[in-house]
């Protein structure tokens, strides 16, 4: 019976795949041929690094790291084609990693001595044996090295493993040529990526190893229980958590951990080694390693380092929730040899830039950062004017790291460290490619939530691809539209409902209503939201103003729900004029609620708000109109003390506040290429904003203060209960709550 069911499911799957292929066989293969230039460093924070022309003028293409042939070895023949992977690995160059006297140098550093003195573990005259007893948890970390023979063996195993997990690992060769030239200049490189999976830690070293570049020492925040496995990983340059710590937070609680790790980083950088660090976009974990490197530069221990944001894009983020023990790892590796590879990976290395230049240029201002409550309370209490400041995200760099250095938790040095973390999260995400599964997930979740025919979905995919390329965003797919659709739907099939009826030639596709399916689609669509964040903020500002218009009773032709917009979809004309100052102010409020990494810290909030409104004009959603005035009215920015630049070259033109240009206003339009684009953009942030609203309501229902884990669990339970009651918004828990919202709500409620 089970065999018949499986055969039936396989036939249904083949039937809808065949329908899509037949339906779209005439579509030309035009996707993915344009490759935008991505990964350029920030013009404002690192202009000197941007001016360095290190790349090739022509596009070198991509290379699949998992594709081997005899041309990549020094040998030829039938037998070589059978063992070309082993020959390829054996021919890779491995840079030496000396460890002589490293332990002694770390123990004799001033930071470690001060740490020992502070905790009264090392009184004057104590011998080195007593210090080694205190260092026993850190000895394996200090002795971490890179063994050439073991690295080649582990590289061969990882290539075989990834061949069973992924269909390909595509790397931009132009980016690798830049890294090779920077390495020849003997610059110390620090690779920074956004954490998505445990496999992130292995992908970057493997790519660099496969292209004869220096393999970095990798920070991997895992607790490995097996001693043999720990020993193997530490001999290929992997920094694991200390044996006595369960999490990164627990390791940071040790007063000696930070001085030892800072001194260890100093020794590695002096040896010319590269470092690979992952940063969590929600909690900021991993940012403390960047803070240590910046402290070394500030103290003069290290002259400078080159930061390299790395964008890693998955068709499907692999699940690696396994216990890191030797038996469990072998069982997991053995299971990989019997599975079919699914999805591919695209890796982009951004242009390296100087950390010292970014810190000392003073272009990234942090002196005007304020907590969220200080930014929004004047708005909530109708106490105008609005505050033109940046939002402080203190949880990204916990204060215990600075307990021995700073007196106040809001010190500018700490805020500058947080700004660096935010900038790297933004840069790594911005240079990541949009995969086909991300594009389809975004359309199904935010534009076609009630379902769509395959042909209409294909037209949406072609339209959204053009919009992404227009915004200088690279895509991780190519080929004909039929191939792209069949490939992405086959990967997303467990989270979709695909109705393929023999009487209909066009399958109907709808997202699965379960919470797990919605979370998966939302995770895939996050990169698309990041690309359209300006337009999404502007659309939500327009939606907020429409809600105010409806509440005032001025117009009855506009739907009452500005976020969902189900009542106003279609050929509806919005006979409403929106004021530029009000739109900008609403966008300014919304930008303070964005998750970390969606807005560069070097850009002011008012500039971001103005760009958000301008982006809607470029999209065709807003049409600018000039409203003549009889009485001069001060402009919005001029009222707040901000200079307004003029484009007129008339020397007789005055800058007086009494001679203002005509005030701009906007009317809402429906772009011909996508009439429902306003609602599509609003839906991108609707789930996040709705979760914040529900969380604010839930604060009154929870007795505080409580431990953070218990508080987060109760908030999550409240969100799930509220979503079950709302039904139509059940899927909007995609960004249930990031760690900064948990921490901020807990502190404010306390």
Automatic annotation (TrEMBL):
It comes from the Eukaryota. GO terms for biological process: fatty acid metabolic process; glycerol-3-phosphate metabolic process; phospholipid biosynthetic process; piRNA processing; triglyceride biosynthetic process. One of its GO terms (molecular function) is glycerol-3-phosphate O-acyltransferase activity. InterPro entries: GPAT/DHAPAT (IPR022284), GPAT/DHAPAT_C (IPR045520). This is Putative glycerol-3-phosphate acyltransferase 2 mitochondrial-like isoform 4. Pfam families: GPAT_C. PANTHER family: GLYCEROL-3-PHOSPHATE ACYLTRANSFERASE (PTHR12563), GLYCEROL-3-PHOSPHATE ACYLTRANSFERASE 2, MITOCHONDRIAL (PTHR12563:SF15). GO terms for cellular component: mitochondrial membrane. Residues 340-627 form the GPAT/DHAPAT C-terminal domain. Keywords: Acyltransferase, Transferase.
